[in-house]
Amino acid sequence: MLFRITLLCFLLFGSKLISQTNYISFNLTSSEELTTLLKSNNNGIDIGKQTIDLRFSKKINFKMNKNYSVNYHSRIVDKDSQLYFNEIGLTVEKNHYLFSIGKINDNNFYIPENSSGSMLFSNNYEPIPEIRFSISKKNIAKNIVYSALISHGILDKNADFYERPYLHRKYLFFDIGDIEKGNFLTIGLDHAAVWGGATTIYSYGDLGRSLSDWYNVVLAKHGESVNLNGPQGNHLGILHLSYSFVKNNTPYYMYYQKFWEDGGSLWHTHHPIWDGLWGFNIEQDDKALTVEYLKTTYQSGNYHPNGIDSYYWHIPYTFGWEYRDFTIGNFQISKDSNRVESIYVSFSNKINSNIKLNGILNILNRYKIAYQDKGWNEEIDLSNDSYVTHKMLKLRVDFLNNKKSKLDYYYEIGLEKSIDDSNIAHRLGIKYSF
pTM of the full predicted structure? Predict the structure, then answer.
């Protein structure tokens, strides 16, 4: 019903709802067997089965108080000949403050646009229904600004969960330095937890849904009403460190994300190269280059406790750090293959006013032994561990619209090769902006 009402409003009052960011596109892929790079970071859209993409939004400013604005967001796509909302929601903004409700894409916080994705919340999954309150870039001193967020979302039922689990998130980031000139250090902590719901796993049953349960989740405390070995819920997060600076009018950005699972692994760094996402970004005029190194092989060691952190995997939330079959964090990691090492290089170049070129080169070592369930005083034998190297390439050419036609065209090609398999896929699209 909600879909029909929104679509009817668009058809009847389209000229009042639309803005310059609105578009409708039609896409065609060569096969449903897409390469990894083609099917990743598409906001949870299965592009092998998707041909229609319609986005429209509206920003309303109040005449009596121009500090307030209301934004309506929606994105309709198709899958298996069925239309559905990939994104729909409202945001209310005033100066540095924002309140939102619905399914709204707002991820890759403090990560470059052409990154492989944050280790916690990336652009790889479909937006989750949630309520958010955030503060963005607010000064607390001359050379210090902060950003903060708290949100509450709800996930889906599945084969193991007969009541829907919840998603909690909060973060706090500080920028310290000469922010106006673009020279500053950033430090932040981003924390999430899957909690609640009811499951058949190990006869856990109801995992809590009261206000006191939520309080325990927010503070990562043990719940009184739930018999779990550890804090209530599946807790994970990132410690973010980055440095931005400008040299010869060119901005540079270096960053590191230290991933942690259930808290303890935040401080376990005894290894030559720490686990996490390391990155470097440079932008100049219409060109951008991002180079990243991702490593998740250590995970505090192969002995539990304190090791075997089991990134993106948890009991009793065995669906892992996923939403509708897409990893919520970095697409190179999954609950069933969470030990990887990779180099990721992404570039973009606007050759002229009508042509833009994007490319990604990704070399990924995927280790055969994944860290998942473990007992106390247990060691995982890695003597026979090995990895498979995946070499991946993606190229995209956009033929940009002119003011008369308002049409964009694009062509994408993805190539992937490993010792076991090789694949090539193509994708074509046309987009009309209005």
Answer: 0.91
